[in-house]
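Action item from last week, closing it out:
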Amino acid sequence: MALGLGWKVKEGTLGPDEVVAPDERLDWGRTVGLGAQHVVAMFGATFVFPLIMGLNPQLAIMMSGIATVAFLLIVQGRVPSYLGTSAAFVGGVAAIRAQGGDSAEVTGAIFVAGLVLALVGLAIHFLGSSILHRVLPPVVTGAVVMLIGFNLAPVVANIYWPQDQWVALLTMLFTIVCAVAFKGFISRIAIFLALIFGTLLSWILDKTAGPITSVLGGATEATEHLRWNTAGIGDAAWLGFPSKTIFNADGTEVAGWHTPSFSTAAILLVIPAVIALIAENTGHVKAVAEMTGADLDKDMGRAIGADGVGTMLASAVGGSPTTTYAENIGVMAATRVYSTAAYYVAAAVAILFGLSPKFGALVASVPGGVLGGITVVLYGMIGLLGAKIWKENGVDFANPINLVPVAAGIVIGVGDVKMKFSDDFTLSGIALGTIVAIGAFHLARTIAPADLRHRADGVGADGGTAIATGDRVYGDEDGIDDLYQNKH
């Protein structure tokens, strides 16, 4: 069928090397079981990042399911994927809030970024992917991903970690152990397990050591408080649409469903995340093509555009930005089942979770110290994924065309350097760093001697991608996805 809903049923027991293609499915009993695995795989990151961005996690879970359905319909069932919350926007959102922006401005900026991504996907679909690789070669893509991640270091240092430094430290160590000491599924849900560990540890310390005195997020003075405040969970209903307002464990107000508003300054701060999403979606399509043996190059633009549509749908009602998830790639690689029917099941389950305010209250209660331990790993990994993009693509930093422009862009982005153009318009941090990295690179390439241009063109000039293929390299964000990635 044109929408990819006409699955052929595979009966009986699968052999060890037998695969289930995207347009096939097992019986519904096993399909539901596989869908549940996909929910668990995407679950942790999908609600952690809304928490970090100050958006409603219950709404994010629900809209991730809706965005996934839209994605599968747009790609006509040829590219199996789950759209979870993207980490690529965390830095831009933090910058918006630091400048006094509210949740409506945040989701408005995310909506515009989704629109840009959808238009990029449309252009790639009709013009081919070569234009993308010329504008965003690996050296530039890696630089943007790196500055997005490292720009977030002050958020960890000044907001989350100080709320409970010892819980943060132990949660960080637990995350590292889960990600490294275990293989397969355990390592893929390391963030989710660390969140549970840190929350339980906070509860135990509340019972044994009593309240802690620290500065909660958004506050200016230290107060005595419980590490894990569960006051709002008991009062929340089991079923219902996400409310218009909830409160995090630190007392900060979080908007529920709402209409976005649009600010030029806010939009400029999140637009660089589009570059990361392009890289991630490209990697996702390449990874699925490699695993299934299908030629999906013609679907590249459609997949990128579908992610943009998913982000627009989610942010239009106050939800979080979306992206394809490596965790779910891992589930497919482990099971050798690529059926999109399992993803429709996962989407339905996510929508049901999103219709439970009690679930939303539970997620919102996660202690700040726990988020500190998780984000110190996640933000660093986002930054280091930029270096991985360089390494996997053999970027030559002995060539000043590559070295000088991106060096300037990274320091501007990480150091939050500001350029004030007027009382009402300032470029800084991620936005300014991205503009410098891209613009200065192409300026340097234009004015450089021919021999340096020739050396620079040796990377990616043959139409190679701006990310590594084979094993997937992610730009976002959910750069964090690489935390769960094992060699398949």
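Closing note: The chain has a mean pLDDT of 78.
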